[in-house]
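Example (one chain per record):
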Amino acid sequence: MANWIGQPMKRREDRPLVMGAGRYVDDLRPAGLCHVVFVRSPHAHARLSGAKLDAARNAPGVVAVVSGADVAALGSTPVTRLFPDMVVPRATLLVTDAARAQGVPVVAVVADSPYAAADGAALVDLAWEPLRGAAEPEAAVADGAPQIHAEAPGNRCLSQRWKSGESQAQAESVSVRVEQARLAGVPLEPRGVLASWDAISGELTVWISTQNPFRIRSEVSRIVGLDETRVRVIAPDVGGGFGVKGGPYRDEILTAWLAWKLRRPVKWVSTRTEDLLTTHHGRGGHCDAELSVSREGKLSRLTARILCPVGGDLSYSAAVNPRNHARCLPGPYVFDAVDIDLAGVFTTTPPVGAYRGAGRPEGTFVLERLVDTAARAVDMDPIELRRRNAIPAGKFPYTTLTGQSYDSGDYGLLLDELVRLADYPALRAQVRERRARGEVVGLGVSLYVEPAALGWESGAVRVERSGSVTCITGASPHGQGHETTFAQIVADYLGIDPERITIRHGDTAGAPQAIGTSGSRSTALAGSALAIAATQVREKGKRIAAAVLEAAPEDIVPVEGGFHVRGSRDRFAPWPAVAEVAYRWGVPPPGIEPGLEATHFFKPDGEVWSAGAVLVVLRVDRETGEIVTERLVWVDDAGTIVNPLLADAQLDGSLAQAWGGIMFEAITFDEDGHLLTGTLMDYAIPRADNVPHAEIHHTHTPSPRNVLGVKGLGEAGNIGVPPAVVNALVDALTPFGVRHVDMPLTPEKVWRALHGPAAS
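Predicted structure:
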């Protein structure tokens, strides 16, 4: 049969999108549509002392004005509890007592048009008693800090300590303090939701820009008070997710409730300013870390104290970033001992949650800065130090001192390939020569791991009467190319051309229960579910073909397009003939039930762990502080690659997103937590001409934890590239006494570092 897995097929889902024929939430306009505008808190921390709503209720076109008292009994949005003693305060859909972040919704104004809703919202008169805030995690846990939630003494939301092993080597210690900026996801399509109640069917349909339709259905059902069978959630075309559309959010659930309550379609689409303020932020962790290293280059003990902001009210994924930040810290290395202390703290800022990488970039950045600092301390080449301490290929599966089980890998091969492809010795020599001539130039490397595919996922495969195939996947794409990749997988298992395979997704009606798309899980989990379901369909097809061809089932061989009898290729049953028997009106072959379909829920034994190595050469302009990236060599290992073209596109996309955090992006607040970067005039994101070209290469250590051998790679650029760039910058600035620079690496920041304390 043809081998579709491994072929660089172009994305088949792109045609309608590039023609402007995509269907996003805001493209949907049912008859009788109402629009909702949310009146939000202008304060980062304030007590709500009064609300005057009559003027808004009497405004032209206004259908309803809803306050916190109207929805107080509905409950609050969910939070994933990953820590046993995690404090999860109740957060009503609309504020009833106090705002703990700027932008939280207080009043919903529904009207016949978005303009009438905005005019009505402008007439809402709220009275506030401002309170002191704390924007940064250190300020929130300091003595005398304002109490944000009464049930969280010291503003602590979650905590855990990983302490294991004993240090054996005589070593010296190096340390680094890292402050990660908070980042915004900035999806091309801001969040949006449209809900409509059908009184005849008694069904609430919700169209929403989300990564997880079934999660939305579950929460809408719970909060609105409808059986899940009466709630249908559809994710149409979704213009980017990156973790920030994992939801659900208060405004999304409330929009669905309003449609049910008013018996009219209701839509809310975020403005860009609302998106920057209310869609949860990512990163933001602060870490003080120390690493012990012997003169022979043995890394022995890793110590870290991590403080992560979670915001004033919790996002669904509030615990994900802190947990990944801590548990991923051992990375690709063997340590004798670790002592990692983690705390997540409430701050009077918008919520923090999963954003492409979700804690993995933070942990890797700290570790790789430490390893580079250690290499400099013992005067050892940074690649050689990494090679000496990398987990040996023969030690997999490997369990880290934080309890993480790595499935497979060859980290030494990654480093060897990086050295070969970059011609590392020559590059090092060139850097020394150029530095001697007065250039400010540096070379940096990183070695990283990327855990992915946590949990389970579903898939269904059905061969139709015509021999074409319909597949339903629980994964819900937002740009990854699932329709192309999954068709390739099923094509290989069934021997059917991918063009005859239709992939359906993003609709809870008629689909098996699912988790959705996040954490680079789709190909490993959803792809494996489809592969196993396709195998079950193929095996049933063999039994039917045996009856059609009057042969023993063990003599039937799957081939491209159908089945033939072993040794007799002219005795051939194509898929349409097999399907005709499976669905015929009369009696099917003895021992075979009608139908030709299967549904599978795939749950592996554990996560898959990708890995990679990055090398960066950069130059700093002395006069401006501008960084010029001269070379970026990247070797990634994600096991089996289903579609190399789309895999490299994912890597390039994650590089572009990483580049924003490296060079430009930072959410900033005043000391109380009021947003200072609330528009794209203030929050800088990269353009295409800002992002450097990456020389992308691959090694392949297949995972034993799924039938495809695949691993995740969607977050690799965010994980591996930032520490390589900062290591290169510190290498360039070391002659000037610089030991560390936090991102973003703006020209001003780099210029001040280059020119020393006097420049500040």
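Caption: The chain has 19 helices and 30 strands.
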